[in-house]
């Protein structure tokens, strides 16, 4: 006999054993949040991330409904893992001292040696095995995703009770804050769903006020074209000049709208060895990154998420950050970089020199 509540309990235990701090089950049904997705795409808010526009055979946006992406699915198991470490926030470190002007910012999630996709996926596979074992049937269908599936993971996370969707668009848990990765398992099993977590943003607007590029165009609405995380990680080629000053010294990702969130003030740090930060990646020297050759890039970021931005992107970002640093010592290095064989590095170096000479 099929026992949804019992199987759900087994799955919850398996997720905790696998190292996930939070786990919940979402039902498969359309939600008001997903109605916004087609509009977001139509307004061009996804920038050049074309994979978000994937459509099914009838031309419907797959991510707009689980019924399009996985018609066989009946429940979604959502797991969350804490990646926060004890290091200070970018909003503290980056403004601390004059000496810091020569350093850039890599996002908190990318400080460890290993890519979070792999770390979370290994754990998710253990939970998937528990789902299949508990169901004791060969007919059960399951699919695991960390990031890459045709699903808006934050929406299912909300309905699984992992947290609420903050005005900064991140999932926030009352106890854990928002420094977490999500992993999802779609299953054909009808499990016992949880309840959505209540919204605790209230009248706060700190994230919207702090975003240096105005990427949070309204509560819960992000324009990727303006988001530093998108510009530094996903955007290939030249970055529009008018947005470069707002990027500050960010060279991979951005944490500001989470750093300022009151729910992250007491966010617990993880003890998991795999998530501990490599010291050289926390607030790294811009000079080092801008001059990095292919061999050193490969060695330093061997299994790290930073590989996604490619060496060319990382150097382009470091050069823009030099322009924003106000530190004249970079002028001589930038003058050399104007002759760089990479067009984006060379053009950005020209911009950075002009910016250092005439900051206004
Ligand atoms: C594309 C993408 C990005 C893009 C776009 C971000 C975005 N906000 O959409 C970029 C490159 C900018 C990005 C940045 C980051 N990302 Co990202 N990203 C994704 C990815 C692959 C898809 C997201 C997506 O579908 N976006 C579409 C838009 C429409 O969805 P949304 O902004 O989440 O909006 C929903 C709600 O806000 C909602 N909504 C809720 N209430 C309301 C109310 C109203 C009135 C309205 C109109 C809408 C609305 O509507 C939307 C759904 O239709 C997911 C993984 C996945 N498969 O889901 C990871 C994911 C969202 N990213 C993640 C992370 C960690 C980050 C960064 C923190 C990394 C960094 N430090 O640089 C930043 C955070 C920036 C931010 N504030 O969002 C985590 C989030 C974990 C968490 N705690 O929430 C995810 C889930 C990856 C993972 N598996 O862990 N990311
Ligand atoms: S990640 Fe940075 S740029 Fe993007 S919305 Fe948040 S504060 Fe703005
Ligand atoms: S900073 Fe304030 S408004 Fe923004 S997500 Fe956090 S609690 Fe919500």
**Count of alpha/pi helices:** 15
Strand order of the largest sheet: 1-2-7-4
Which geometry do the CA atoms define?
elongated
Derived from helix and strand composition plus strand pairing, the structural class reads alpha+beta
Ligand roster: cobalamin, iron/sulfur cluster
Q: Give the SSE string.
A: HEHHEHEHEHEEEHEEHHEHHHHHH
Please name the defining characteristics of this protein.
360 residues; alpha+beta; NADH Oxidase; four-stranded antiparallel beta sheet; two-stranded parallel ribbon; 15 helices; binds cobalamin; binds iron/sulfur cluster
Verbal overview:
The protein has 360 residues and is an alpha+beta fold. It contains 15 helices and 10 strands. It has a domain at 4-87 and 113-187: NADH Oxidase, CATH 3.40.109. The protein has helices at residues 4-17, 32-42, 66-69, 90-93, 116-135, 153-159, 206-210, 228-234, 241-244, 256-259, 286-290, 294-300, 310-325, 331-337, 343-357, and strands spanning 22-27, 75-82, 105-106, 142-145, 164-165, 171-172, 180-187, 216-218, 221-222, 250-252. The model has no long low-confidence stretch (mean pLDDT 95). Bound molecules: cobalamin and iron/sulfur cluster (SF4) (2 copies). One iron/sulfur cluster is lined by residues 168, 211, 213, 215-216, 222, 227-229, 254, 256-257.
């Amino acid at each position: 006999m099929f026992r949804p509540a019992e199987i759900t309990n087994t799955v919850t235990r398996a997720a905790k054993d696998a190292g996930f701090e939070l786990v919940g089950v979402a039902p498969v049904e359309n939600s008001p949040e997903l109605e916004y997705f087609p509009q977001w795409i139509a307004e061009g808010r996804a920038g050049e991330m074309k994979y978000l526009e994937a459509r099914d055979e009838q031309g419907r946006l797959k991510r707009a409904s689980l019924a399009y992406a996985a018609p066989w699915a009946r429940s979604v198991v959502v797991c969350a893992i804490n990646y926060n470490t004890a290091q200070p926030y970018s909003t503290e470190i980056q403004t601390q001292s004059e000496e810091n002007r020569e350093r850039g910012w890599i996002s908190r999630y990318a400080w460890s040696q290993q890519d979070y996709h792999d770390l979370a996926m290994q754990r998710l596979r253990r939970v998937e095995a528990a789902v299949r074992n508990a169901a004791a049937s060969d007919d059960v269908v399951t699919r695991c995703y960390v990031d890459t599936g045709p699903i808006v993971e934050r929406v299912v996370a909300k309905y699984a009770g992992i947290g609420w969707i903050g005005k900064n668009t991140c999932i926030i848990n009352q106890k854990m804050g928002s420094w977490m990765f999500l992993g999802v398992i779609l299953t054909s099993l009808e499990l016992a769903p949880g309840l959505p977590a209540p919204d605790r943003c209230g009248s706060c607007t700190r994230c919207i006020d702090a975003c240096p590029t105005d990427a949070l165009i309204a509560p819960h609405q992000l324009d990727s074209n303006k988001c530093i995380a998108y510009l530094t990680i996903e955007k290939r080629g030249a970055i529009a000049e008018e947005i470069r000053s707002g990027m500050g010294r960010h060279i991979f990702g951005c944490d500001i709208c989470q750093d300022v969130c009151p729910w992250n003030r007491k966010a617990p740090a993880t003890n998991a060895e795999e998530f501990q930060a490599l010291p050289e990646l926390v607030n790294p020297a811009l000079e080092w990154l801008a001059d990095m050759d292919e061999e050193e890039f490969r060695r330093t970021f061997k299994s790290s998420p930073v590989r996604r931005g490619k060496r060319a992107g990382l150097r382009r970002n470091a050069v823009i950050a030099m322009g924003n640093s106000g530190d004249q010592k970079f002028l001589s290095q930038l003058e050399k970089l104007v002759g760089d064989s990479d067009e984006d590095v060379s053009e950005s170096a020209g911009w950075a020199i002009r910016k250092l000479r005439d900051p206004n």
